[in-house]
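Dear colleagues,

As part of the handover before I leave the project, I'm documenting each prediction I ran so the next person doesn't have to rerun anything. This entry is a single chain, and its sequence is reproduced below.
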Amino acid sequence: MTSDTSLAPMQTVSTLSSEASFRVLTDAMPQMVWSTLPDGFHDYYNKRWYEFTGVPEGSTDGEAWKGMFHPDDQEKAWDIWSKSLETGDPYEVEYRLRHHSGEYRWTLGRAVPVLNSEDKIVRWIGTCTDIHGQKRLSERNEILSRELSHRIKNIFSVISSLIALSVKGHPESRVFADTLRERITALGKAHDFVRPHSESSEPESVYPTVQHMLEEMFAAYPAREDGRLTITGDNVEIDDQAATPMALIFHELATNSIKYGALGAENGRVEITITTSAEMMHIAWSEAGGPDIKKIPQNNGFGSRLIDMSVRGQLGGELEKNWDPKGLQVILTVPLKRIKR
């Protein structure tokens, strides 16, 4: 009995010591810290919480914390918190928290469960971090980026218009001018695909990929509508730096195919297949059903030089052409690190 009696006070002292250490530690942190019981009942907030919110101590215990959030954020935060309580998954959400000044400030809320030796949740420990400044800076940068992108898009339109006006005085240059305008249009489509978007202009695809970019580029081609131009394979994410040369490469291949190859024939077909290895992306362009290739072209025109400059100079890749009598076969190989940096 003596040993049992002496053990209880020792455990109590240990528990009190741990609780005191926890409070000292959390009060020293620059973040707001809180904890809950396993069922989500809030039973502790550190000093930073009360300094930030300005509410009386204990007034946000239980579920009263929900009233501190912006009305538009309450449902989302509660849904995510409820799911964490149900599954035991870590909790993370951004919401606007009412500051003691009355302003709602953006905050990052996080929480993780504390487990006992039987892997049962005995407590949740959470933090709130003021990210209002970073959030506002990010929003300003997004607005600036969209505005810059819009101006770049306008530049493409202005250049096309200037070319059209110039041709009126030099009709002998119309073929060259039309080709140049097509190339500028291809660049514009690539830029539009990878540019920053607002919620209203966001494309259906969540991430810009090579496959989706090519689908956008060739959407208006009759062969695409007829199923004679197919794009299959891996979805490889692409950034704005790689999209421009990639658009030029495939615009040139398509233009040449319309003039001399499968896309210019009634039953001609082009298959584009995208595959990846450990560090490389491979795109195969395969033509069939067009005019038979009698001989390998010897001249290296501007389009070919443009492709070579885009492949080697901007993408650090390689391009192989096989002039099969039944149709041109092209293999483009590019390091994945040059597709999405």
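Residues 252 and 303 are 6 Å apart (CA to CA). The beta strands are 32-36, 42-45, 91-98, 104-115, 121-130, 229-233, 269-276, 280-288, 318-324, 327-335.

All the best with the project,
I.
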